Structures are given as C-alpha cells and as structure tokens.
Amino acid sequence: MATRRFPDDNAGDSPISESTPPGGSSVRVPRSINTPPPPPPSANNPTVRPQRRPPSKNAIQHMPRTLAQVLNDANEQVVRGDLSELVPQPTGFDPLDGLIGGGLRKTELVLLGGAQGIGKTIAAMQMARNIAMRPDQYVFYLSYEHTETHLMSRLLCLESINPPEVDVRSGLKLKDLFDTIISQRAREILGRDSRSESLQMILRENPRTSMALARMSKYADRFIMVKASPAVTTLNAIREMTGRLSEATGGNVTVFVDYLQKIAIHPERAADENDKVTIIVEGLKDIALSLGVPVLSIVASDRDGLRAKRLHLFHLRGSSALDYECDIAVIMNNKYHILAKDHVAFNPYQAKQFRDWVVFTVEKNRAGRAMMDMEFQLHAPYFCFDPRGQQVQQQLIDDKIIES
C-alpha cells in the first residue's frame, strides 16, 4: 500500500552565492546575511512583491505527516549516511558534555546563566571555538555586548594558551596584544622601520602572537560573528540570518546569542519584561526547532539573583518561560562564594584557591540527570576556561555535599 505524502511548497529562490574558503572546498554562503527583506507592495510601488525563499532541506517542516512518513524519512537519512540529527556537537568541556548527552543537539535550546563577570561570554566563546574547529561545522555568534574586533582579540588571547593544553607561560593578555600592535606602528611612524605592515603581518611576525594567529586561522572561515544591536537585531532578524546560514552550510551551524534579554522583538509589543522574555525564549526555541539547529543563549540574572548567595535558574531575568522552553539550563557560580563556610570542614586559607574556579550546575536537563555540579578553572586574563573540569567534591551552600 502506497504511503500518501502531503503536498509541499518549495517555490522561490534563495539569494545564495558560491565562495571557496582558503584551503577548503566550495561552500555556499549568503551574499549578505544582513540584507533586509524586500519592501511590501504599496500604492507607490505596486510591482514589488515579497520574495518567497524555499524552506531549508534541513528545516523541520510544519506539515502534518503520518508516523509512517516520519519513519520513512528517518530511514532515508540513515541510508544516505546523514546522522547529523543524531550526533551532538561537543562543547569541549568534557565533564559537562558527559552530563548533557555529549554536547549541543539540533532543535535544542540551551541556556547559560550567571551573575555579571562570572565568565558567561568566555565560556560561550570557547564552546563556539571548539565547535568551529571541526572542519564541517560552523558557528554563528551574535553579541549585543562586544564588537567583532574585540571578540577576535579575545580569541587570540585564548589561543595563546591553547586549551586544553592551557600553557599560561606562553599566555597573551589583551594589553600585551594591543602593545604589540601599537609598538610596531610606532616604530613605523618614527621611521625606525621602513615597512608598512598590516595587522596580520604584525601578528604573524611577532613570536608572541604568531602561534595564536595560526591556530585561530584554522577556523576563521567558519566562525561567523555579528555585532548585534538591541534596536535593529530583532528576533525576526536572527531567524532570517540563521535560516540563510543554515541553508548555506547544509544545516551544520550552531547559534550562540549573547545575551537573551537584549534581543528586540519588534514589531511585537510586550506588556512587561516577563512578557518580552517569554516572546524571546519561545522564538529562540522555535528557531532551533524549525531550522533544525542547536541554539545556546546567555541569560542575565535579575536583581534578586545578584543579591543571592547562590544563583539558580529561577533567578534569571524574565519569566518562568525560561524554565519551560529550554531543554538544558546551566547556571554558573563562583566556587569560593558558594562554599559552605559554616561547615566544620571549611578551611578559609585553603578556600582562597577556589576564587578562580567556577561551578557549572546543570539545573535542567530533559534527556539526563539534573542538579549536577561540575567545576572548571577560569583563566580570566586569557579569556579561557580549563576544559578539563571535575565533579565538585566540597560542600556547597544548599547542597550539603560533604568534603571528601
């Protein structure tokens, strides 16, 4: 008996062009992911019609399908060797990946929360870097907080200690990087060096920066960044840009948003911040589902969270929709601040060594165990965590884990 398939709508063309990255094969990339949609028809411009883009072959279609159709489609994917929906993208933070099922999965929304200065952007950038290092994977990093140039500088500092090797002896701080560039340009201006060197030449020829540049260059073509604006980069704009990148990369793109509460929701209007956060988190979850991509978003804490001794998921700014919509929620706390200091095993002198350690708590996990604590050492001057973390052995406040 033949299986009846519901009709599909694939009309329209996508504005995609061909490009060839250095040392790689041809990759389809969007001409401009920031290109606004065409204007709607009007009395003054009756001939203009909205262009309809075909849905990505990797997108999950909102079409009714029978269970037999779903099984047949899944079977076809396995037969042609397409296992991308079954294989997660490891974040590179090994103990954390073990808790969340191997890494970030397509169609899932992951929230990364914490107080200001705890290292949320550092962790997200490092996870994005680890994914982009794989030859067939791309990352799309939207930052409402930093420019693309600043993020690039952070990556150079990270690469200088080469995680997971984390050799701080060769570490490059942000001031070191800027001093290297400024001093070389000063020598040229004063006439002590007749060459006029570009930034890449300066970094390539300086022994302190050459290896970091070489490491970063391995994934530079697959790490896509946008300086987002709370006034311009709306939820709809993120959906459009992600759709084009998903189409261009064959669905092999992971989205990072820094951070959720900064996203604009125009033309929608929210009654209050809780309503706005509900619209945003539901929209990000729909982007993950409809486009079939992993989405990780940083979430800021509310005022009560900033005053709390230990930050939890319910302290994140917004509504309960954050808890309902996400698949995984990871909350970051400084280990020194959440050690149970009233316990007899607490040693104030020994505890000082934990100031540079951050506890990652998996507070929600649809596919595994929750309320699990892992700790990672933060090397803040180099914008890097040591990804070789471990399970927390000490007693934390409101956890009652006895020190072994």
| Helical content band | 25-40%
Distance between the termini: 64 Å
Question: How many whole angstroms does the radius of gyration measure?
Answer: 23 Å
Proportion of residues in β-strands? 15-25%
CATH class category name of the domain at 88-333: Alpha Beta
Number of helices: 13
Structural classification: alpha/beta
Number of strands: 12
Runs with pLDDT <50, length 5+?
Answer: 1-32, 34-56, 400-404
Chain-averaged pLDDT? 81
Element string (H = helix, E = strand)? EEHHEHEHHHHEHEHEHHEHHEEEE
Multimerization state:
single chain
Tell the overall outline: globular
Q: The biggest beta sheet, please?
A: 10 strands, mixed
CATH superfamily (homologous) name of the domain at 88-333: P-loop containing nucleotide triphosphate hydrolases
The CATH topology annotation of the domain at 88-333 reads as Rossmann fold
Examine the secondary-structure arrangement and name the CATH architecture of the domain at 88-333. Answer: 3-Layer(aba) Sandwich
